[in-house]
Amino acid sequence: xxxxxVKTESxxxxxxxxxxxxxxxxxxxxxxxxxAEAANDYExxxxxxxxxxxxWHKPFTTTLxxxxxPLYKWFDDGLLNVSYNCLDVNIQKGLGDKIAIIFEADGxxxxxxxxxxxxxxxxxxxxxxxxxGVKKDDRVVIYMPMSVEGVVAMQACARIGATHSVVxxxxxxxxxxxxxxxxGASIVITADEQVRGGKxxxxxxxVDEALGxxxxxxxxxxxxxxxxxxxxxxxxxxxxxMHDLVANQATECExxxxxxxxxxxxxxxxxxxxxxxxxxxxxxxxxxxxxxxxKWTFDVKPSDIFWCTADIGWVTGHTYITYGPLxxxxxxxxxxxxxxxxNAGRFWDMIQKHKATIFYTAPTAxxxxxxxADGDAAIHPNKYDLTSLRLLGSVxxxxxxxxxxxxxxNIGGEKCPIVDTFWQTETGGHMITPLPGATPLVPGxxxxxxxxxxAAIVDETGADLPxxxxxxxxxxxxxxxxxxxxxxxxxxxxxSYFPEELGGKTYLAGDGAIRNKETGYFxxxxxxDDVLNVSGHRMGTMEIESALVANPLVAxxxxxxxxxDTTGEAICAFVVLKxxxxxxxxxxxxxxxxxxxxxxxxxxxxxxxEIRFGDNLPKTRSGKIMRRLLRVLAKGEEITQDxxxxxxxxxxxxxxxxx
Length: 659
Ligand code: WTA
What we know:
Blueprint: H1 17-22, H2 27-40, H3 42-53, E1 64-65, E2 73-74, E3 79-80, H4 82-95, E4 99-104, E5 110-114, H5 115-131, E6 139-143, H6 148-160, E7 163-166, H7 173-183, E8 187-191, E9 193-196, E10 199-202, H8 204-212, E11 221-225, E12 239-241, H9 242-246, E13 258-259, E14 265-269, E15 277-281, H10 284-296, E16 305-308, H11 315-327, E17 331-335, H12 346-354, E18 358-361, H13 363-375, E19 391-395, H14 401-411, E20 418-421, E21 455-458, E22 471-475, E23 485-486, H15 490-497, E24 507-515, E25 522-527, E26 531-534, E27 537-540, H16 541-549, E28 554-564, E29 568-577, H17 584-601, E30 610-613, H18 627-635, H19 651-656
Helix pairs in contact: 2-3, 4-5, 4-11, 5-6, 7-8, 10-11, 13-14
Bound molecules: 5'-O-[(S)-ethoxy(hydroxy)phosphoryl]adenosine (WTA).
5'-O-[(S)-ethoxy(hydroxy)phosphoryl]adenosine binds near residues 424 and 533.
Keywords: Acetylation, ATP-binding, Ligase, Magnesium, Metal-binding, Nucleotide-binding
Family: Belongs to the ATP-dependent AMP-binding enzyme family.
EC number: 6.2.1.1
């Protein structure tokens, strides 16, 4: 990667005066002072924050245990409960009647739940789970729509020390089954149906299908939230309705006090090889960082109406819907639907209606709404009153400067800072991001690491690279909210994140990055492994390839990403069939079949946008597929590289054409 690859952006937006005056971290001096504090006494820095911010049932005495690195432990001899910190602590502070969640359903109905009410719901559900024998360390799979009940289910697990594993409602029965089996779940919580964009989509039927695929004998009960009352299958011997389970339960529930490193959740994410990885997160360190990033990055204040548009099936929904905002006693919006229903003004309408002050979404959503606003003046953001907003956020993928500027002007009215937050499922919370009261913003840059996060750019041997030179993004010291393990696969954990080549103790993010020569600002240049980022969703190319070759028609498949104006990257698959290469209408027909096949194997988010058929794939003489060349072909560019090492250079010509 060279300096030229990153276009220099010269626009700079200093923090607005009102932020500098009131922000948790006010001005670059305050930021630098915190960074210096962390550098001078790393453990002392974190210990102080953990004592100040969390309620400990029994305080910890050891801050960081590195004796078994990279299996780090933080605050582990301390006892706490995450749900107690989110609910009871805030009620004790007098926030019982404050609205915790403003829920807006797909069709527009609004339900408001106070902290006291949420506490009662969580306790009842936690008691219900206990009545079924669920206890500390059991794993519970949650396959639910965006709903108050989804948040309640997660918090209820936390309350009794059960470890939840949320599976995004867009995943197929097969993906769900793989996760149920891998995590060893004894309970599945779901809904009869989910409602998105005016359509009712099955959830319970998919759970039944998943359980029918085998190896799920451990699942003793399926708890069903009645969302629509639609026609979902129901097996009274195994299934029970959520409303029946909670009906006679007490509204108080003694929390299970757990060690700080007790696994709060396991969330599956795509890696470069093989099956999705169960990223295991802690309780204490994770919650601490969820709270600190709410304060530092979002500068959240008691009067804020916070809206994170992510789904609880992804890490962003965990940290910035279920845990961070509630731990801070914030009022937040939870939205069931999609940004384009009933029209593409839905987000702007909801900001206006609920007077949202902080809005956090993904660049993909912004880019698709720009297109929609350009095409239909009636839903242009300038038709809505968005003056309640004071801060905007972006997450999940790089935000291109054009989209940044549109967001800044049209949504933020040129007065709201944008925090471009770089982080990952594995990091638990933000890692590199501007601070709204301190950092001058540069469109397209996530700027600087948060205090305490020792991010750096190194070469393949782990040697530091100077600013201006692109390399591998690493974090040199463990931090409290980091991934603790890959569920059931410590070896893979070590190999994926703490490779020997980098000394075995440096966290490898899997992204490339470059720092600006003058400012030291970070720009993320994209994944360095075989992970694609499609609409902010992480997809492993190997996963999609495995799904394709599982189809009886397919002999071989190679999947690469290609740049896409809306989704960031799009999936492009090169496929060799067992029979001869199809062309014309037949190729179209088979491509359609294969796309639907992948949707069934993994989920609709993994459908290739484009499928090209060849007699073969470009391979080296040792049989290795040259993905590098396929990426060039997918982009529609001419191949300029040397192809003399190819076994079959002629194949490139055939694969050049999109079908
Ligand atoms: C990418 C989502 C550029 C990156 C929270 C990372 C980003 C992957 C940004 C993690 C950003 C996330 N700028 N790239 N602000 N945020 N990414 O695990 O490639 O779903 O490794 O976590 O998304 O995706 P994940």
